Amino acid sequence: MGRLSKVKFATGHGTGNDFVLIADHTGDFQLTPRLAKTLCDRNGEFGADGVLVLRRPTDDERKQGVDLVMAYRNADGSAAEMCGNGIRVLVRYAIEIGWAKGNSWQVLTPAGNVRVDAVGQDRFEVQMGRAELGETVNVEALGENLEATKVSAPNPHAVALVQECSKFEQVDSPPKLGPRDSFPEGANVEFVQITGPRSARMVIYERGSGLTQSCGTGACAVGAFLARYLSVTERPATFQILVPGGELEVRVEAGGNLALIGPAVLTSQGEFEPDWVIANS
């Protein structure tokens, strides 16, 4: 890292889910938990829900069809398997700096290869794979005990159906999850209010980040949940998911595969001094 003259970065968001993005030009950038926490600290210079690192593929990865590689850490420095909003913003940044050509890309993530397609002006469709719906679990928030459905998308989620989701925007600490062994690594919690035959609103408390304006994997978990709960059997079936930061579409395909469609916005670009990065890593 010390041999770099500058470390390029950008900030951006997908339906209000905001990120600091770092372009790893050498392939050896180390995003430490401490650096992620510093960058995400909303009382510091930046503030974000998470940090994304973008790099080009190695020769071996390129032979396997990989176009871009993504690493991600939450605001508390913990790593996550996937970020449905973040991957759209990452591709948008790759286009901006000339690392992504064409209209379709394979992005290597900790959850595996993910296909992203451009579908409009700064709008992208992400092939998110399948969501696995599991057993009923318990969520305790604001003094209420709620039944929820365990969903892997692939991040762990607890989807709780509520009459009015807006009051859960007051949640100020991680909801309690049970049984104790249901989520050994924690989970994102979605408080979901059904608003129509193919639509819902949700409030999200993200593992490692707290209340956020949006969550892409959470929207997918909710889309899969709604398809089963509302007994929607036709495929494809598209659900409109309203989050505090905007609107996402989730399409449930034949076989249960999910596509997430939404915007990606860059808000600033700049450079870090290597000494600053090293001092905060």
Secondary structure elements and pairings:
Blueprint: E1 7-14, E2 17-24, H1 33-40, E3 50-55, H2 59-63, E4 68-74, H3 84-96, E5 104-109, E6 112-120, E7 123-130, E8 132-141, E9 144-152, E10 156-161, E11 176-178, E12 188-196, E13 199-206, E14 210-212, H4 216-229, E15 237-243, E16 246-252, E17 257-263, E18 265-272, H5 274-279
Parallel strand pairs: 2-3, 4-5, 10-12, 13-15
Antiparallel strand pairs: 1-2, 1-18, 3-4, 5-6, 6-7, 7-17, 8-9, 8-11, 9-10, 12-13, 13-14, 15-16, 16-17
Q: CATH-wise, what's the superfamily of the largest domain?
A: Diaminopimelate Epimerase, Chain A, domain 1
How much strand content do the residues show? over 45%
Number of beta-strand segments: 18
- Residue ranges: pLDDT <50 for 5 or more in a row? none
As a percent range, the share of helical residues equals 10-25%
Which structural class fits the helix and strand makeup? alpha+beta
Q: What can you see in these coordinates?
A:
16% of the residues lie in helices and 46% in strands. It folds into two domains: 7-122 and 265-279, Diaminopimelate Epimerase, Chain A, domain 1 (Roll); 130-261, Diaminopimelate Epimerase, Chain A, domain 1 (Roll), CATH 3.10.310. The chain is globular. The protein is of the alpha+beta class. The protein has an 18-stranded mixed sheet that branches.
